[in-house]
Known about the structure:
Elements: H1 2-22, E1 38-41, H2 50-62, E2 68-70, E3 73-76, H3 84-101
Antiparallel strand pairs: 1-3, 2-3
Helix pairs in contact: 1-3, 2-3
Amino acid sequence: GPANISAYIQPLIERAAARAAELGLSSPPPASRSPHMIGVRVTKSSGLTEEDLEQVSKELLKRGVHVSIRGTAIRISPNVWNTIQDVDRLFDELRTLLPAIQRPAL
């Protein structure tokens, strides 16, 4: 049931938060997180806009990775068919894509 699904997804959410921090992205503290998704946000100093992130989302989709963009946050919604390796793949792709479009803030 739902409790089992949440228990399965929780380590994926935790991994996403940890990997986001490695890239300088912020995420809500554990007590403020939803049990079924997480939003990781780019910093203002990155210079990235919502439009930039929409482009990242399109590039991820071409690579078979699905996320949603909400403002300057990347929404990650894992489910029971996802694995830790899927989360790692997302952040490996982001490690490549984000620096390619980052620009200094004015």
